[in-house]
Fold this sequence. Notes:
By secondary structure, the protein is of the alpha+beta class.
Amino acid sequence: MTHSPFTVSHADGVAPAENRDAFASSEAPPGYEDAVLPKGAHWLRDGRVFLQLGRPVIQTFANAGGQTEKVTDHLIFRELLGEDIFEAGTLPRAAQMRDLACRSMGNVGPVGDSLLRKMPARDISRIMEIVMVFTGTGQTTGQ
């Protein structure tokens, strides 16, 4: 079994742990200045949100060479688009937030669903807070 000590959820363009601060931004992008991100999350220079997970998630995948283990210790979320909202709206209500989270992190389908199912509830709650920031329903400063 292959094990990677640092793997991201998708090709997110963020440097390994020792260089992550170089991609951080102290300012929210236009339109999100009043948004409050959850603990462990911060804005990236390009307007995406970085979230450090409370506990890494390990997924095992079967491939031609046997099995590969993928360790995810952080996620990167992009702004949601109208298309994301419309697609999620075709699902049963209970699955809509999960779908929006997967779309925002660029991991739609069984792999993204598996990733979320293996996470502690605290990390899921923080992910939902980020989704709410991108849908305009999240907490803002002054509330």
